[in-house]
Design goal:
Helix content: under 10%
Largest sheet: 4 strands, antiparallel
Strand content: 35-45%
Number of strands: 16
């Protein structure tokens, strides 16, 4: 549940704060609406590929059960097994799990929240202040997987990325066959010979020439034996 900010311009900037509103998908946008929330320097985490803000505290304040989305799940004797932060487990039926996750969404039954506001920053070269307005949709869980019952991965694939380089591909031969109405889950393990940062998309090819592209993915790998 992180809001990621990438600086794609030509000059470095120093983020000061992010002022924003969270609203449901059906709410009409109002640019003059005062911001509900402010994430200042202590909430902004700098990384190799930009900045990020953990939105969990603000989502919790408006009624989202963020802890429910952090619980690890697996197939269980009744359907779904939850592994709680307390170290205990709970077994639920598939319908009980769906109801639990639907309730956890709180005011965002579509599993997505509108996030709009402005990003305030300083140009370290001359100290000039700047501001960028933004509006985006933040998915609380993977799009389309809001209340999906967890299914164990049936297949595992491995791929190794280059520590440096641009505009290259890594094909993975996936052998999955699904009938109409069926679903499956597989795992792709990613490795790199040394610590590095990557930005990429995943393209899933199916039924000959059809494909689905993922959103941009930012990944930082730490390899203690290959720093």
């Amino acid at each position: 549940m992180r809001f990621t900010i990438s600086n794609l311009g030509g000059s470095p900037v120093q983020l000061q704060k992010v002022e924003f509103n969270l609203s449901s998908q059906g709410t009409k946008e109002d640019e003059n609406r005062p911001p509900q929330f402010t994430a200042d320097a202590q909430h902004i985490q700098a990384g190799v590929l930009g900045y990020s803000v953990d939105l969990a505290p603000w989502l919790a304040s408006v009624g989202v059960d963020v802890e429910a989305f952090r619980e690890r799940t697996d197939s269980g004797p009744r359907g779904v097994r939850l592994y709680k932060a307390t170290g205990t487990t709970e077994d639920l039926t598939e319908e009980e799990y769906r109801q639990r996750m639907t309730k956890a969404l709180g005011p965002f039954p579509e599993a997505a929240a509108k996030m709009s506001g402005r990003i305030l920053y300083i140009n370290p070269a001359d100290g000039a202040e700047g501001m960028v307005r933004f509006a985006t949709t933040m998915f609380l869980v993977e799009k389309g997987a809001t209340t999906a019952v967890p299914v164990a991965s049936q297949s595992h694939y491995n791929v190794q990325l280059d520590p440096v380089g641009r505009n290259y591909t890594r094909p993975i031969n996936i052998s999955q066959g699904l009938k109409v109405g069926e679903f499956d889950r597989f795992t792709i393990r990613i490795a790199c010979p040394r610590s590095s940062a990557h930005r990429f998309r995943i393209r899933l090819l199916y039924n000959g020439n059809k494909y689905i592209d993922s959103p941009p993915i930012s990944l930082t790998l730490f390899n203690p034996s290959g720093i």
